[in-house]
């Protein structure tokens, strides 16, 4: 039986039911892949996938991006719980990461190779808040007026996790976690073209912090203006989690953020990140098709421009 795919009432996303993600045949997978490209985010209620099953599902989309030094760790827990069951306090390094996740972002744009997609499933959810919001950067680009489209067509921003955490008051040491590297800050076009659909989208978010050719205040002003405009209905989906639900978003054109919640309650999400494709991640977007001077990254181990 083919899965049931029902578009959301927003510019992105569809809910997919009548499907078991742990045992998809090829025809079912093709329906999922097509829907992923069309809707840019898919919601699969009540799947209850184990970590291994979520990794297997994620591998359908591409390689896993390794978020830990140990490459055997393919799925991670986004959680405010300590091993002893108590919840973390503000002095815990993870606290800063969770607070950071509350700002609109694209995953791993601060790495040489940004993520292709993100997969999250809920294991434990707080009684209030803790939703995940998604924002459609394809529809956001389309909705810009022509003057703004013209203004940003050839602009490029640096992306840095140091910079985004600094903006919310955290100074983080190099080497203290994923993303705090010495490879420099990648320079990414504000407008990117989707390698499959050809649709343009805004590549912005909290990690973008400086624009080539603009002074820093003007750059931040423009980035803030674009973000404010982009993340508005009908381009937003708010995922109200039930334990067992799973979502995947296309990180090339969908931003996300966590909604705040009472940190005295436990929230545990199982996360896998799908690695970007080196052939398209930093592909040039110049309007006239000129080579734009980007050197596409082939892995997250290469050198990028200096931070
Ligand atoms: C992430 C993330 C948001 C959430 O895992 O990359 O941003 O709702 N998570 O936990
Ligand atoms: Mn994220």
What's the CATH C level? Alpha Beta
- How many structural domains can be distinguished in the coordinates? 1
Shape annotation: globular
Give the termini separation: 51 Å
Which CATH architecture would you pick?
A: 4-Layer Sandwich
Extended strand count:
15
Biggest β-sheet: count, sense, barrel? 7 strands, mixed
Mean pLDDT: 91
Helix content: 10-25%
Low-confidence stretches: 284-307
CATH superfamily: Clavaminate synthase-like
Bound small molecules, by name, code or SMILES, are: N-oxalylglycine, manganese (II) ion
Strand content: 15-25%
* SSE ordering: EEHEHEHEEHHEHEEEEHEEEE
CATH names the topology as Double-stranded beta-helix
Tell me the strand order in the biggest sheet: 1-2-3-13-5-15-4
Our count of helices gives 7
Whole-angstrom Rg: 19 Å
Structural classification: alpha+beta
Plain-language structure description:
- This protein is α+β, with helices and mostly antiparallel strands.
- The chain has a single domain, classed as 4-Layer Sandwich (Double-stranded beta-helix), CATH 3.60.130.
- The protein contains seven helices and 15 strands.
- Strand 2, helix 1 and strand 3 form a beta-alpha-beta unit.
- The C terminus is likely disordered.
- The structure holds N-oxalylglycine and manganese (II) ion.
- The site of N-oxalylglycine has 10 residues, from strand 5, strand 14 and strand 15.
- The site of manganese (II) ion has 4 residues, from loops.
